[in-house]
Structure prediction request, 400 residues.
Amino acid sequence: MGEMRDDELAADFVARRPEALEAAYRAYASTLYSVARHVLGSDSDAQDCVHDALLRVWGRPGTYRPERGSLRTFLSVCVRNEAIGRKREAARHFHIEQRAALAEPEQPYEIEIEDPVDRARLHEALAKLPSEQRQALELAYFRYLSHTQIAEKLGVPLGTIKSRLAMGLRKLQNALPVPSASTL
Amino acid sequence: MGEAIELYALGALGRDEAREVEDHAAVCADCSRLLGEAERTVFALDELTVPQLEAPPELGARIAASSRVVVPLRSRRPNVALWAALAAGLLVAGFGATVTHEIRNDRATIAADDLAFSSIAVSHFLHTTFTKRSPDAPTAKVLWGKTPHWFYVIVDSASCDCNVVEITSSGERDLGPPAPRGNTATIFVADAPDAKGLELRTGTRVLASVQRPMSP
Prediction:
């Protein structure tokens, strides 16, 4: 199977050509596996997660459409959401991680990024956000808490948390070097 | 969808809420575009924070096998033009081509069986028996995986002239005939969260049906 361009992969995916899922995986394998592994922390869990997320998308025609942007971004977010869902289910099962997360005292999240340039860019982008939006975003993005968990943890109404998350992400969109859909 | 778009991209919704967003985006171009923008921001965060790792080679093989299990089911229906073309091809290519074709089929069958058996081995599942709606209906059972939502139909007849049809709340999906396995015929679908039930049909005639059981 030769190298395919992203737009060709996306077109084949939308057309549901039989080899399209396998081709998309091969093109984005590192991205998808890395996201799952980062969230779940285990190789076998990450493999199960990527496998099931891709099969779930493939089994539901129409979930991806070209207006949504790049196929790589779409699949990456699907895998990330699947991984977060699994992490939350595991926490519910054991009732340990979740309680610990909710009971932790407020403290700034230590962002582990090796590249100092990337670290500086992220800190700079987050620093531009109002503190309450940054706090909600960090709990959602870095600690994988749901909106209801964040509301409970911060003792803030759910509607307020939803607004903070949405506004925070929209502002981050302007602060981060977000690639355009065509270059992803 | 309002704020649900950003919450979905961040992974901050529950599974049911996320499913609603996905369903809506599938039919709404504007929301799909907004969702794409939010997803690009999360992807940009990932690019800064997620160390890139090499994916294990066995994962690619597993996904390839699974995608072949789900997709070709529709194409198993007998197709006169296809069989005519195959027959012509065999006349030209001779016995060697026949052997190659059979080996490929065997590999596909092994991959399908491997996925089905590994799913059964590692999952919790329920099993139900099809209710016969016609005197000529074969005996058939189905195993329903709980998580993920796979199902595995086993028909007690290798020569059942029937298709398996998946019933969902939004319609139905013809999965084609089950594949012969010795004295039985089977069909495995790796991901079917929306299945409400199944039917065995010959043409439009329903031979047997079964409802997906509620999890206890």
Notes: The radius of gyration of chain B is 21 Å. Chain B touches chain A through 61 residues (CB under 8 Å).
